[in-house]
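This part of the workshop introduces the protein records we will be handling. As an example, a complete record with its sequence and its structure tokens follows.
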Amino acid sequence: MLDYQALRALAAVVRTGSFEKAARTLAVTPSAVSQRIKQLEERVGAVLVARGNPCLATEQGAWLCRHVEQVEMLEGNLMEHLPALKPETGAMPVTVSVATNADSLGTWFVAAASDFAKSSGMLLDIAVDDQDHTADWLKAGRVLAAVTGLDKPVTGCRRHPLGKLRYHATASPDFVARHFPDGVTPEALARAPALTYNQKDRLQARFLEKAFGREIAVPTHLLPSTHAFVEAALSGMGWGMNPAILVDRHLQSGHLVDLVPGIVIDVPLDWQVNRLVAGELEGLTKAVVAAGRRGLVG
């Protein structure tokens, strides 16, 4: 049998980032936390925590943390039906680890997270990655649910289609006048600075392939912020792919223009949740699906 006191100590260290904070959360001493994790590591035969500032879970540690989350959710559901089992002292809220892409987090996802948090009393640990890579977090057991860009379910997960996040290639009128005096051509694009979220971001490349039928190597700024992306386009720093939900009003006012009118990129998104806890996370799934229908293109 697993030592659940040790597992909760591990989860607390990873959640808070330190042995001292975990000890305060669990109302024990830091040495007790350290001893529990040491014994667990000896039992498992692997290092579970990468000691540092903050402390991080190893791959094996992440699997155990997700197991603790599942157990805590199942126990919470059981205690709703058998209230006599509830501890006399208040238990710590359950923390649920999920992943989403940055543009969803910066537009529609927070509304779903807020609705769920207020109704369930659970806490959320939200990780951010490209929509083409959040599924890897599910496969690795690092999260229990995720917004993904896949069109098929991850093994062991239930998939709920959400809609499409629409992107416009936008720039300021001044930027267009400076860099495209003779029109938006492949030659001009090869010199005009673009905006890229990070090295995983392929939206600009997809737009160029759709608009011009081929790849174009473009100079680019790296700017890992959804809202700063819009501000950078408005300021004339570069052109970039921005969610329609954030730039529609700027396009209507003329503060931004479509680089190639009529060409948009639609990114299908879905919500995938681990089957083992799909019932316990039904409220979160309903909130995410509802928010997706409000904020995404059908």
